[in-house]
């Protein structure tokens, strides 16, 4: 597959990178941040972002089993702890707004595991990876391809 275009305004790129960096830093859990970004990218079928974030997760030492079973995290038993499950459920709810909103039960479950600041950063992280996914998928940027 070839990219439709590599054009992306530098200001847009820089702003999105800044939001990504701020969300990751404020969230404070790099490994879980990568799992969240991978899960959103799976849902959005973004090969470019999957390739990038799987590599980053491996570099952080995320267990291979967690990466292998992420697409079926709900059925994976004790592979994911309750905190990870809450973050992944929130990721899916924000990414796939089937009912037009994030269900209260999903939000409340996440709020049990993350204080208000970390929860805000988690939502920002999910939002920005969805933006990146849409930028890459709509332009058909292939895995390992130049994104700009």
TrEMBL record:
InterPro entries: AhpD-like (IPR029032), AhpD_core (IPR004675), CMD-like (IPR003779). Pfam families: CMD (PF02627). The keyword Oxidoreductase applies. Signal peptide: none annotated. Keywords: Oxidoreductase, Peroxidase. One of its GO terms (molecular function) is peroxiredoxin activity. Residues 15-92 form the Carboxymuconolactone decarboxylase-like domain. It comes from the Bacteria. NCBIfam families: ahpD_dom. This is Alkylhydroperoxidase. It comes from Streptomyces cyaneogriseus subsp. noncyanogenus. The lineage of its organism: Bacteria, Bacillati, Actinomycetota, Actinomycetes, Kitasatosporales.
